[in-house]
Amino acid sequence: MQGTVDGFSYGLVTPLVAYLMACLGGALGLRCTTRSMLVTRSWRPGWLALGSAAIGSGIWTMHFIAMMGFTIEHTPIRYDWLMTFASLAVAVVMVGVGIFIVGYRGVRGTALFTGGTITGLGIASMHYLGMAGMRLDGQLTYNTFTVAVSVAIAMAAATAALWAAGQVRGFLWSVGASLVMGLAVTGMHYTGMAALEVHLHGTTDPSSGGSPAELLAPMLIGPLAFLLLAGVVVLFDPLMVMGKPVVVPVERKPGIPARAQAPRPVRHPAHHPSHRTRRPLGHRRPRTPQNR
User: Fold this and answer.
1) Does the entry feature the keyword Disulfide bond, yes or no (predicted)?
2) From CA 189, how far away is CA 69, in angstroms rounded?
3) φ and ψ at 253, to 5 degrees?
4) Do residues 78 and 135 make contact, with C-beta atoms less than 8 angstroms apart?
5) Mean pLDDT rounded to a whole number for the chain
6) DSSP classification of residue 210
7) Distance, CA of 127 to CA of 139 (rounded, Å)
8) How confident is the model at residue 117 (pLDDT cuts 50, 70, 90)?
9) What does the alpha-carbon distance between residue 76 and residue 62 come to, in Å, rounded to a whole number?
10) Which residues are 140's β-sheet partners?
11) Cα dist from 77 to 5, 17, 26, 74, whole Å
């Protein structure tokens, strides 16, 4: 039996909130990526890791907020806890790999393409792994072409967002990049949901797993708390808005000069024959001997 799928049970509330969550996670993550390009290499891994966790938490939270409005007629939906939180780990790790590539190799050429591709695949993997954690009295099937389109949307928009974040041109560029990232996640999600078909068995209700309402509390307490903490870190960092590089002070150690200076050349006045010292005429000796 074909199940009737409704992805907008609460109207536009869940898509709008989901999009805002994706933009929030993208804004924090991309600003951290931009910040990593302005600091020394010793601080760079910390900022990149924070950005990866922010983007991963944002897209994961977006996915399950959108799934709150997803219902299937004649069957309740449950979620496997292990598979659900495994999708969060996959999102953070794969997005982190893409961000680290861009953070260390730059936002040009092969590095940008590789980082954007891996980040987009991380978004898609999180979505379909989360969908695999659904438990219902039926079977899920997908249209292959629509799934491929959803993955392509995620990869293209993630690449564009990373490129915009790597320009380091101020706060507005990061806002625009976060809007693109939010569009990537939300567009990929609903394109993937359009590829879904449900075939109900009509036997019994699923007994294992948690309901969407039961997943909402840990989803808000965990990733949203982290996003709030990351937002505080980003907000109180003065260079995040100014977009200026860090001035690294010169390290002074005993016995080591602070800066090697080239010796200044000593200029001597030019020697010209005309500059010889001449005696007064009265003190000159005659060239011929005098008889005394």
Assistant:
1) no
2) 13
3) -125, 150
4) yes
5) 76
6) B
7) 17
8) very high
9) 21
10) 198
11) 12, 21, 29, 10
